Amino acid sequence: MYAIIENGNKQYKVAEGDIVKFEKLDAAVDSAVEFNVVMVAADDGVKVGADVANAKVSGTVVRQDKDKKIIVFKYKAKKNERKKQGHRQPFTAVKIEKISL
After folding, report:
1. What number of other Cβ atoms are within 10 A of residue 25's Cβ?
2. 30, 57, 76, 93: most buried, per Cβ within 10 A?
3. Euclidean distance between CA atoms 101 and 93, whole angstroms
4. Residue 31: is it exposed, middle or buried by C-beta count within 10 angstroms (0-12/13-18/19+)?
């Protein structure tokens, strides 16, 4: 069984036991979180819309951390304009505990 959940403006495909990286959530480590369910696919078929209105996906926050550093380098040719920046995106890792209908 898997579910499509929504967090922010993004949707994620999750199954029980998965560890998923979300954009930073305001939740402490080892706290419980719940997500909006868009779709659930189980043995008896796919459910969407009103069928998943009562569905819940719950998980536990595993860690709050920052991702690998990426380098942003902008320049204009022949103008001696260069700008180098680094960026580390914060994320929250969540372990999906239960998908219930």
Report:
1. 18
2. 57
3. 23
4. exposed
Measured in degrees and rounded to the nearest 5, phi and psi for residue 31 equal -95, 160
* Three-state SS annotation for 5-27: EEECCEEEEEECCCEEEEECCCC
Specify the length of the chain in residues: 101
Q: Render each residue's pLDDT in the chain as its tens digit; 101 residues.
A: 899 999 989 999 999 999 999 999 999 999 999 999 999 998 889 999 898 999 999 999 999 999 999 999 999 999 999 999 999 999 999 999 999 98
Dihedrals φ, ψ of 49, to 5°? 65, -130
**Side-chain-facing half-sphere of 23: CA atoms under 13 Å:** 6
User: Could you tell me the pTM of the whole model?
Assistant: 0.83
Structurally, how many domains does the chain consist of?
1
